[in-house]
């Protein structure tokens, strides 16, 4: 982190009445919000008049958020004006993630089927017990490991492409745009364009090409291994440009002198790459791979639209599995628990990965 | 060049070997480039040409229009977007335009909101030192970036229930809020890098001239950081335009976006290849144009933060 903070003079002399007004504003709006929320909760339980939707609480929250921002300026002057930069984003993120996450924990511990009229029933750890013996969920988790391992290959290809783009070539802009385009395409459209149309086993161009090469009756989603590989390739196709651009930026940041010095020292070509370029690229590579892992863990749309998990769950990702759990059975409680467990697994895995990456890239002295 | 019978200067044996090596390297590089460009561009070419095919052309696997087959407007007619259907009323076209408009509004609004919130937060984090309970700047920054790890599926079902209670299900506002949340960490990541590259002396000078904190930010810093903001905006646009998962869960008839429309057609029996191709072309075309025209900004956005 940089230490280049801006140091301004914050010598505001705030009148006491202004400070009091600010406090009153924040507390008043806060109390109003609590009162509305309480009233609505009572209404939902049947103890008070019902208001229909929860919109009033939402509006009360918005009012409170605005009042809080304003009162910051009133009570703290310059400090408040500075807080105003970050406060809206924090309120936004807290309202949209922290609150739903806490709510999600509640849902996860209950038996709640949206299509059944019973409504939500608290059932403690029963969902966890059910998860423990759900072979499809474990299968989906295992699949995620395979999908993440495919990143190694994607990385190698992306690195190769970045080296190509960094070489002395003509029409560099054309190649760059062409290589970037897959990233711009919607995965759903891609899954139709490639997954359904080009890989169509009878008259798709890829199947035709394979038949011309002598493969008889090519099928891409028939057996589990092939289906998994095909999904990996589809996903790689859209996301390789992403890693490629990051690696290219890394390559361009390497000072020319370093490579020239290496060449003078007799390290050229293959050796120069492994002993000079690659070590210098380690930090960028680790960043690119970590971000790619994060995106990979969200992989769903291609699987949902092309195979919907089949054959026999071979291509299922956790997200697509939970998606179907909701779509087919409206099982909100169980689905949320699976998602929560997934989140815990991800956070643990990412923490370990980041620690490893940190140790791996720290300059050895 | 080499017309002289006895060249004055002759390349030595080593030089010639070097030159041969150089040429093979060139050829290999361009061959690799062309191969990958083919892999990248062929699916797009295939989709666009298929939208002009008829059933027999698809079955025979014809490739090149006007050579293998005569293009027809079949696919585009089924969307109501061929020349002869432009004048007439058309339900599919109204449907397509509605989805297209939804996608446009949702992606533009959420990207704009994310860039607004994200730039402010990133600027604050890069310039002032905050202390809020136990959290310092680094912790707040990490709090924002950690949202990137959060998989959408964790939020999906709670949001479904919440939106139902708030009557935000199947509305554009609901999608906009959620999409803003998903791209906000990326925007903050890019913008923090941008602001860190602008020297603080600029604001100090502005403050000496009598501008306040916000005045300096709005009049001095924002214009300098504009290219970075455009990069963040475009990257957000790409991600939100293509988002499928939330849109599929949270919208049904009124607010669903183009990807949902495309996906809902793929499942149906007896696929109309030509009309699906036309639909896909319509869905990818805006971003292909954006990608070709604004490639510079996208690369800038993704390269930010990669190199420190």
Could you characterize the architecture of this molecule?
- The complex is a heterodimer of chains A (365) and B (308).
- Chain A has 365 residues and is mainly alpha-helical.
- Chain A has two domains: 16-108; 130-361, Orthogonal Bundle (MetI-like fold), CATH 1.10.3720.10.
- Chain A has 14 helices and two strands; from the N terminus they run H-H-H-E-E-H-H-H-H-H-H-H-H-H-H-H.
- Chain A has helices at residues 16-45, 55-76, 78-108, 126-132, 135-166, 172-184, 187-198, 205-213, 224-253, 256-264, 269-296, 301-306, 318-329, 332-361, and strands at 110-111, 121-122.
- In chain A, strands 1-2 form a two-stranded antiparallel ribbon.
- In chain A, helix 3 crosses helix 14, helix 5 runs antiparallel to helix 11 and helix 13 packs antiparallel against helix 14 (332-361).
- Chain A is flat, with a radius of gyration of 27 Å.
- The model of chain A has no long low-confidence stretch (mean pLDDT 85).
- Chain B has a domain at 91-303: MetI-like fold (Orthogonal Bundle).
- The longest helix of chain B is centred in the N-terminal third of the chain and has 38 residues, at 13-50.
- Chain B is flat and about 70 Å long.
- Chains A and B meet through helix 3, helix 5, helix 6, helix 7 and helix 9 of A and helix 1, helix 2, helix 4, helix 5 and helix 6 of B.
The number of distinct β-strands of chain B equals 0
Instruction: Give the number of DSSP strands of chain A.
Output: 2
> For the record, what is the CATH homologous superfamily label of the domain at 91-303 in chain B?
MetI-like
Oligomeric state as shown: heterodimer
- Mean pLDDT reading of chain A: 85
Largest sheet of chain B: none
* Helix/sheet category of chain B: mainly alpha
**Helix fraction bin of chain A:** over 70%
Largest interface: A-B, 100 and 106 residues
Order of helices and strands of chain A: HHHEEHHHHHHHHHHH
Q: What do we call the CATH topology of the largest domain in chain A?
A: MetI-like fold
Q: How many distinct helices of chain B?
A: 13
Give the distance, in angstroms, between the N- and C-terminal Cα atoms of chain A. 21 Å
- The level 1 CATH classification of the domain at 91-303 in chain B is Mainly Alpha
Approximately what portion of the residues of chain B adopt beta-strand conformation? Answer: under 5%
